[in-house]
Amino acid sequence: MNFSNLFITLGGGHYTSLSEAQEAGAATINYGLFITSFIRFLIIVFVIFLVIRQMNRWKKPDQHPMDAMTKKECPYCKTAIPSKAIKCPNCSSDLDDWKENRSRKKTSPNLRLKIK
């Protein structure tokens, strides 16, 4: 439906189309143009909403761009892994166990077994 031809004349005359009323010089309220502009605006806003929603779905939750770029090295296989990794994806070693073993080694006394 073409809403652009909807209008109200402020004078007492009756006109069949908007162009006829404008040619006669009658004062009109063109509410059809407003409705058309409003529907176009709603369509554009809806499309932008869908695009932004899809982009948010592609982004992984709790993933900050700086966290994704920072890497650390696996102590076992020496490959680069994400900084928040708990388990190495390459060698499947637990990184928390390595920290615990390293801290135990620091706290335990050096015991040497001498065999004669």
From TrEMBL:
Enumerate the subcellular locations listed in this protein's record, separating them with semicolons: Membrane
Q: Region labeled Disordered — which residues?
A: 92-116
Q: Which UniProt keywords apply?
A: Membrane, Transmembrane, Transmembrane helix
Q: Establish whether keyword Membrane is in the entry.
A: yes
Q: How does it sit in the membrane?
A: Multi-pass membrane protein
Pfam families, per this entry?
Answer: MscL
Matching entries from Gene3D superfamilies are given as:
Large-conductance mechanosensitive channel, MscL, domain 1
Task: State the SUPFAM superfamilies in the record.
Answer: Gated mechanosensitive channel
Q: Any transmembrane segments, and where?
A: 31-52
Question: Which residue intervals are annotated with compositional bias (Basic residues) in the record?
Answer: 102-116
Name-wise, this protein is Large conductance mechanosensitive channel
Q: Which organism is it from?
A: Aquibacillus albus
Top-level taxonomy: Bacteria, Bacillati, Bacillota, Bacilli, Bacillales
